[in-house]
Amino acid sequence: MPELPEVEVVRHGLEPAVTGATVTRVEVLDPRSLRRHDGPEEDFVERVTGARLRTPERRGKFLWIPVDGRDEALVVHLGMSGQVLLRDPDAARDRLTRIVLDVDSPGHGPVRVDFVDQRIFGSMALDVLVPARDHPAQLIPSQVGHIARDPVDPLFDDRLFLRRLAAKDTGIKRALLDQTLVSGIGNIYADEALWAARIHYDQPTRSLSRPRATTLLAEVRLVLGRALVEGGTSFSSTYVNVNGASGYFSHSLNAYGQHGKPCPRCGRPIVREEFMNRGSHFCPFCQRIRLR
Length: 292
Prior knowledge:
By secondary structure, the protein is α+β, with helices and mostly antiparallel strands. It has helices at 4-18, 41-48, 158-167, 172-176, 187-197, 210-229, and strands at 22-28, 57-59, 62-66, 72-77, 82-87, 97-105, 109-117, 123-132, 135-141, 271-275, 278-282. The chain folds into two domains: 4-144, N-terminal domain of MutM-like DNA repair proteins (Alpha-Beta Barrel); 158-282, Helicase, Ruva Protein, domain 3, CATH 1.10.8.50.
């Protein structure tokens, strides 16, 4: 599933093309991609057609484009395999295209925005904007209201996060994947940050000292920052940026997907264990469970 870096790369790529653009036509090829829209296909088409789009925004793995003059936004969730591609109006369509928006961009002229999704877990929806609970002056889609801020958000509260983390009674990786505690961190970047911080994925949160938790948060930010610079992580064609290009952070991974290979720090083999219907990758020597 695309995580924070991948969604931010998409948001950044969309920004120059859709900011200030007007939607001239909407075509829904697969209504299943409107599962999060509160209304029928016709409602989505009617309300999005003619909308003037503002600068795309993001929280965690959610991306949205506010509509100018209206308290609503076009919300995009990539799910497992969603892609948002910018195309020339007459370009050939991918066979897995689910929704098409034709827009007239101030800086680029006519542009086609294709929502492509292989597994159809992603979606588009028009949603009402509501005040954020922790910062009422900021408006966010109602669908995003339960999502915590992510570690690269300027308004992320480190002390609140550390306090809430210490109060939880779970394993540290489960906590990192809890989008109501901190958003945008998925399996890949959790494994990478935990490896960098030398913390076992099942280390109890209540046994994690404040200094170690602070170090982990710093490593999360470093890992996310490096992934952003390298365009995210691509293991297959399902994740690409708006121009169809893959990210390169997969070449920089130290733990995730590296089972059987030597740990870059100690040389012992990286191990993969089953975890929440997926896997955790770690070094058993460098990342031992500690009482304190």
